[in-house]
Each structure stands twice: as structure tokens, then as C-alpha cells.
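Hi R.,

Here's the chain you asked about this morning:
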Amino acid sequence: MMSLNEQAVQRRNYRALLAEGSFFITGMAFMNASSVIPVFIHTYTRSVLLAGLATTITHAASIILQVVVGPYVRSIRNVPAYITRVMFLFRPLPFIMIPLLYIHPDPWLTVAVFLLIYTLLFAGDGLILVPWTDLFSRTVSSGKRGSLLGTQQLIGGVGALLAGLIVKAVLDSPHLVNDQRYAIIFGASALFLTLSAATMPFTRDLPRTTEATRPGHRQYYKALPLYLRRHAGFRQVVLIRILSFVMAMIAPFVILFGQNKLALSPGAVSTLIYIQLVGGLSGGVIWGRVSRFLGNHRVILLTQGLGLLLAFSMMVMALPFQQLLPVYLIWPLVFINGVNLSAWIGFMNHTIDIVSDEERTIYLLISNLTVFPFSFLPFLAGLFVQHFGYLPVFIVSTLAGVVSLLLALRLKPASVLMEKKTTI
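And here is the predicted structure, written out as C-alpha cells:
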């Protein structure tokens, strides 16, 4: 039976983590890695390669720091305090872009400094991701996790819509130059990210056992393959997630394809950015509901189906006869691209559901480690686009999507997997 103190902590953390995630989603909408940032980088450098690099940074920097902190998660005595300190250290960093942009440095230097800040921002996220997930899954009941993440996406998505309106108004304003436009955008992002950090001191933890001795990295990671070998259900999820990364490598290039190949106007491009943010809001609501009522294995299945639809459609639009297709087809595809940005909800929640509480942080870390090499795919995709065009990248994405969808069709509900594990 749950104690009153435990109930109080669960209620308190539900509210605090809801606010934290909502502010974070709103803040990151101003620096969306597959819409705002590719357009920013392309505006200053005309480089598709660097646009792909920005997306790679969002995954690679985070995972590298997860590798560093992974062995020590279970020995952190005060998880909320640790997360709070890291958040306040990294999340205000985009404020640095304001004075930088107002001194009008070389465009390549501007982008280089931004990419450094972007790397540090996601590195900070990597330092807290596994501890945050551990705190979330320990202090929020299993029946409310999908609801919390879905509500985060809903409230944060509304904030993202407002962010999108601001971004569109700023980018379309004839009274501002590019430096002023992006100073406003990055400053707004930093403000909401700082507000997200300000909510973490209100969280509390439940009593738990911490490890007195910290295992060395070599000892810790040497044992990880054993966990992977003994859990077939988890291996299946990891394989689908890898293929999902391959399929999703086209995400930062969907809007750029419209801008470069379909000759869309700057006003149309800013509208596409807004449409993608609307898609992000819709995805958060949809996947949160599917997670709650149909299960996280269905979230994974549906996101892979949508991802395949996007990849195949982009492949068709990149074919030589694409001039025969109406340009407005890019609008729903950009929307789908936004919807699938929340696909991680299914993978994370399904992993939490199919492993034990004691091994949760280990399996989450393994999941991120296995996809780490594939986090560089958007950068490589940018290289291919720059030298060979969009079509080869869209073809590879489509093929990965076909295999991913077939595997996702075979996923079993978490309840079935846990029942088998208990029986064994």
C-alpha cells in the first residue's frame, strides 16, 4: 500500500515535471533541430552539411555524456539537486548569442559559436537524461507516465505554437535584419529553458538505495552486453530504434528540400517552420493518448508507419518527374515530420515497461549507446545531399522504414513480455 508521503511526492513531482517539460519543449521549439536551425544555418552559410551536423549534435553530444555519467547514476545521493545544478549551468547558454549577433561577426563564426553552444546544451541534457528518467519512473506511477509525457507535449506544444508564431513574425518582418531576428529567437529560447530549470528545485525523491562504491567505466560497460543478450524483447526494440534513426535522418532536410528544390519563397519557408511546430504539438498529444490507451508498442508501430510514409513521399518528390507533382504536397509532409519528432515517447516508455526497476537505468543507457553510431547519419546525409542530391538519402530512408515497420508489426505489449519473464 502506498504511504501518504509517497502519494504527496508523486503529486508534487507530477506537477513539477509537467512544468519543467512544458517550458523545455517551448524553449526548444525556438531552436528546433529539423526546422528553425537548418534554416538559420543555411541563411548564414548556405551549407546543407552543417544543417545535418546540427541534428547529429542533438543526439551525439547527449549520448556521449550519458556514457560518462552512466556508471554513477545509482550512486547520486540527491537526484533532484544534481539535475537542478546541471540545468542551471547549461540551459541559459543560448543567451550568449544575443551580444554575439549584435556585434555582427563573420557569418561562419556566428554559426561556429552557435554550434558550440548547441553542443554544450545537448551535452548538459545528456548529463541529466538518465537521472531524470530514473526520477520520473520512480516517482510517477506507471499509469500516469504516458499521461504526464502527453500532457507535457500538449502544454509545451501550445507554447511551441506560440513560439512558432513568434518565429514566423520575426523571420517575416521587413524591419529586422537576420542578426536581430535570430537574437530575438535565441533569447526567447534561453528564457524558457531557464524557466524549465527553475522548476526542478520543487521536485522530491523517494527513499532508495544508493551504491556506496562507484564502479569503474570499464567494469560497468563490460557487463552491458550480458543485459542485452538476455532480453529478447529489448533487443527487438533496439533494432527498431536503430532503423528508426536511419529513417529519420531526412528530418532536417524536408524543409530545406522545399526551399532549395521547390523554390519556395522566404514567407513560405517560415510557414513550413510553423507547420512543423504544429505537427510537433499534434504528435505529442497523439502519442501520449496512444501510449495511454493502446500501449507503447502501438506508438512505436504507428510512428514507424508515418516515418515510412514521409520517406517514401519525399523520395517520389525527388524523382526527375517531380515537376508533375503539386508543390503543396510538401505541406502535409512537413506536418508529418513534426508529428514524428515525438516518436521517442514510445521507445522510452516501452523500455521502462519491459524491464525491472533495478535495471531501468542500465537498459535505457544501453538503448542510447546502441543508437549512438547512427546519430551521425544526418551529418553524413548532409554530405550526400551536398554532393549527390536528395534522392539517394530519401531512398535509403525509405528502405530502412520498410524493415522497421515490418519489425514493429511483431512487437508484443509490455504486459505479455513481463508475464513471460515472470513465468520463466
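One quick note: The two ends are 27 Å apart (CA to CA).

Cheers,
M.
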